[in-house]
Specification:
There is one protein chain. The protein is mainly α and 202 residues long. It is built from 5 helices and 2 strands. Strands 1-2 form a two-stranded antiparallel ribbon. Helix 2 runs antiparallel to helix 3 and helix 2 runs antiparallel to helix 5. The radius of gyration is 29 Å and the shape is elongated. The two termini are 50 Å apart.
Length: 202
C-alpha cells in the first residue's frame, strides 16, 4: 500500500511539472506576438509622419511665398496681396513651420518605437506632442480657412469685398495651402490614434 501511494504521489508530481512547463512557455510567445503587432503600428506611424512632413511643408511654403501684384496701379496706390497683410495668414505660416520642424525632429523617436516596439516612453512622448500639434494645425487651418472664405465670397454686412476675382492666383495659392494644412491635421489625428492603440495593454 505504501509503495502504490508513493508511486501515485510521484506520478502526480510529474504531471504538475509538465503542466508548469507548458504554462511557462506561453508568456514569451505572447510577448513576441504583441511586439510584432506594435512594431507594425510603429511602421505605420513612421510612414504617416513622412506624409505629414510633406503636407505641412507644402502648406508652409505655399502660403509663405504667396504674393500677387496687379498689373495696373495709380499714382498713389499699388494693388498687391501678400500673406503677411493678414495676421491669420502670418499665424498660419508660423504654426505650420513649427509643425514641420516638430515632425522632422520626431522621426528618430518614431524609429526607436520600431526598433523597441514594447518601449512606452518614446511612444507616450510622441502621443503628447502629437496631440498638441493637432490643436495647433487645426487652429491655424481654421483661421486661414475663414479668411479664404471671405476672400472668395466677401461679407456685405462688414463691407468686406470679395477679392478673388482680381487676385485669382493669390486665392488659389492660399486655398491650396489651407487644404494641405487640413491634410496634415488629419494625419496628426491618425498618429495620435495609433499611439493610443499601441500604448493600450492587451
Amino acid at each position: 500500500m505504501e509503495k502504490s501511494r508513493s508511486g501515485e504521489h510521484a506520478t502526480t508530481i510529474n504531471i504538475t511539472d509538465a503542466k508548469g512547463k507548458g504554462v511557462a512557455s506561453r508568456p514569451p510567445l505572447m510577448a513576441a506576438a504583441r511586439g510584432g503587432y506594435k512594431r507594425g503600428l510603429a511602421i505605420m506611424d513612421f510612414v504617416l509622419r513622412l506624409f505629414a512632413i510633406g503636407a505641412a511643408l507644402a502648406a508652409t511654403i505655399t502660403m509663405g511665398t504667396t504674393d500677387q501684384t496687379l498689373p495696373f496701379f495709380t499714382q498713389f496706390f499699388q494693388f498687391q496681396a501678400s500673406y503677411d497683410d493678414l495676421p491669420a495668414f502670418s499665424f498660419f505660416v508660423i504654426a505650420m513651420a513649427i509643425a514641420s520642424g516638430y515632425l522632422v525632429l520626431s522621426l528618430p523617436f518614431s524609429i526607436v518605437t520600431i526598433v523597441r516596439p514594447l518601449a512606452t516612453g518614446p511612444r507616450l512622448l510622441l502621443l503628447i506632442f502629437d496631440t498638441v500639434m493637432v490643436g495647433l494645425t487645426t487652429a491655424a487651418a481654421s483661421a486661414a480657412a475663414a479668411i479664404v472664405y471671405l476672400a472668395h465670397n466677401g461679407n456685405s454686412n462688414t463691407n468686406w469685398l470679395a477679392i478673388c476675382q482680381q487676385f485669382g492666383d493669390f486665392c488659389q495659392s492660399v486655398s491650396g495651402a489651407v487644404v494641405a494644412a487640413f491634410i496634415a491635421a488629419v494625419l496628426f489625428m491618425l498618429m495620435v490614434l495609433l499611439s493610443a492603440i499601441a500604448l493600450k495593454r492587451p
